[in-house]
Amino acid sequence: VRDRGPGDKNFAAMHSRLRRDPKDAPENVFYTLLCRVALGYVETIPDPGPARQGLWGNLAKYVQGETQDWPEPIFANNGKNRRELRIVPDNDFPHHALVCAHTRTGFREFVSFHGREYTCPVFLIAYRRCSPRAPAPASATSPSTWLC
Predict the structure, then answer these.
(1) Which region, left, alpha or beta, applies to residue 58 given φ > 0 means left and ψ of -120 to 50 means alpha?
(2) Average pLDDT over residues 76-88
(3) Model pTM score
């Protein structure tokens, strides 16, 4: 959601907490949180597709003939509970996070199933989206004038 500046009522509380003078809030800014997350015991799957479809973690390897073993469900209760991962082998507690190792974009995906317990917001990042053809705004030369 775009922060339209001092008159934006959706961001008024944040402006008053971040700025000495809320009227100095920058215009046309987006925000994102950078968080520290404790992953704990992770379940790693090769592709995010099986998790999105609620199927099996190693189903892709089985289908491609890389293994003859039928894959175990990655979710609890034989795949029926998608809010919890399966139990860690030789323990009585579930995996804490899911890591999709090979995605189409080349980036790994991390999914934490207990976000409230294991996530700590560290930074609030303010940024502007600029068209590649448009010149940067004058204030962009001095990031301290618009970054929080």
Answers:
(1) alpha
(2) 78
(3) 0.57
